[in-house]
Amino acid sequence: MFPTVIVSARGAERVASGHPWIYRSDIADVRATGGDRVSVRGPRGHVLGQALYSDRSQIVLRMLTDGEAVADEGLLRRRLEAAIGFRQALTIDASAYRLVHGEADLLPSLIVDRYGDYLVLQALCQGMDRLTPFIVATLNDLLAPKGILGRNDPRSRQLEGLEQRVDVLSGEVPEEVTVVESGIEYRVDPRRGQKTGLFLDQRENREAAAAYARGRLLDCFSYNGGFALKLARHCQETIAIEISADAVGRLRQNAERNGVTIDARVGNVFDELRGLERLKERFDTIVLDPPAFAKSKTAVPKATAGYKEINLRALKLLNPGGTLVTCSCSYHVHEAAFAEIVYDASIDAGVHVTVVEKRMQGRDHPVLLGVPETYYLKCFILRKVA
Length: 386
Known about the structure:
The protein is of the alpha/beta class. It has three domains: 4-66, Roll (Archaeosine Trna-guanine Transglycosylase, Chain: A, domain 4), CATH 2.30.130; 73-177, Transcription Regulator spoIIAA (2-Layer Sandwich), CATH 3.30.750; 199-384, Rossmann fold (3-Layer(aba) Sandwich). It has helices at residues 9-17, 73-89, 126-130, 132-143, 203-210, 226-231, 245-257, 269-278, 300-317, 335-349; strands at 4-7, 21-23, 27-31, 37-41, 47-53, 59-66, 96-101, 110-115, 118-123, 147-152, 165-171, 177-181, 184-188, 216-220, 237-242, 263-266, 283-288, 318-328, 353-360, 378-384. The strands form four sheets. The chain has a seven-stranded mixed sheet, with helices on both faces. It is globular.
């Protein structure tokens, strides 16, 4: 018998809508402990499905099944097999990519990324954290990696009352791993790099942007140089700006490793864009790939101002006919709002801009329809007409 959680009528409606998250305000009664797999029942006692239960988070339930279906280890293994099989079918031109993308693979709060012969895992809720030994054993059985790293240091684990930690869960994991993405070789630090080591969700956007890259390239918020390394081969000159000195050091190493010339600079992008404008610099290709400016709803106004500022400056620096690749990974700034911000920036810059492509996170980071939280990365490839 599974422990039981009873939800309100509104909670039952949310389950029926297909959204996997049930919030604390929609919980009527709990007979479970944190981390349990539970049976979810409506106000009249009818079974709605099974879920992972958290006694600390505002997201109390993360649904695993509907109706009478049982969320046993056989179901979890089949979902892992399906997620891995889907990625293998994509024939991704990279040795680093996402294998499991949480809710979109019906495995809520579980992230698994592949870096060559190694896997990096994140379990971001109490229930998935408790299931980690089973997940690790299943991944070893299905993929036989040389090692699995638990990269369980995101701040979101604090909301679950979970410790932030980085541990080797299986085998051995070196301090650095070499991976290849679309012909570009990277050295990855899986323990300390952003996310699980690299920004894997931008891979297909980097490939798309390369088709338009030319002339002088300015890559802002460059991190380890993902866009700069891919686009530089199509450009006469490349300048990359990143505030982290450590990241700039890795960027320079990656550029040397790949035989690419990049002028990598440590600097605050907001200040550097204004400085380049004062110097009357001009570019034919500009990339804006900032970190999430809005990590909560309350941060949206400040984020909106930040996105508008960098897009305004970039459009002023861009030559007519040039390409602007502009991105937002803030879920709370949805696509229409982001488009409006860029449009407002173009008005203030006194220029006309056309949309060449609207893009999102890569196919290995799928979006689950009806769950807008899984659609977070927006990428517009724009042309400055005049």
